[in-house]
Amino acid sequence: MALAKIVYASMTGNTEEMSEIIEEKLEDEGLEVEREECSDVDPDFFEDADICIVATYTYGDGDLPFEFEDFFEDLKGEDLSGKVFGVAGTGDKEYGEFYCQSARDFVEQFNQTGAKQGAQLVCIENNPEDEDIDLLQTFVEELAKSVE
């Protein structure tokens, strides 16, 4: 059984809720899942994963969440060749060009690890609603297919 690991950061609960939706759908797809808050793990958390997922919010003017900074920096030193990754982010469109910037930054960081992007980046404004849940389910389905 393939193993998916989710690392998330959440200030208001929106990103945590999103990570829970992703976790539930991964389990529905028949995958084993581990989900951890980012301050509880290092990037080597992904070492035995088949699918590596980051769920993050964006702070201020496109800034990474403080609690994700070390994880983000250390991630580029990981060799995740042969693994699949996906990134989902929450944000507020009032920030314009900085909307979900941290999520976009994580895609770039994962690209430096040798991992293959298994699903398109998902950006959700604030908390996940019906249409967002559909996007997240498609995101998970794409990730699951990439490891079959």
Automatic annotation (TrEMBL):
Keyword Electron transport belongs to the record: yes
Domain Flavodoxin-like: 4-144
Keywords: Electron transport, Flavoprotein, FMN, Transport
Keyword match Lipid biosynthesis: no
InterPro entries in UniProt: Flav_short, Flavdoxin-like, Flavodoxin, Flavodoxin/NO_synth, Flavoprotein-like_sf
GO function terms (MF aspect): electron transfer activity; FMN binding; oxidoreductase activity, acting on NAD(P)H
Entry superkingdom: Bacteria
Record-linked SUPFAM superfamilies: Flavoproteins
Cofactor (UniProt): FMN
Primary role: Low-potential electron donor to a number of redox enzymes.
PANTHER family: FLAVODOXIN 1 (PTHR42809:SF1), FLAVODOXIN 2 (PTHR42809)
Annotated family: Belongs to the flavodoxin family.
Protein name in the entry: Flavodoxin
Protein source organism: Vagococcus carniphilus
Biological classification of the source: Bacteria, Bacillati, Bacillota, Bacilli, Lactobacillales
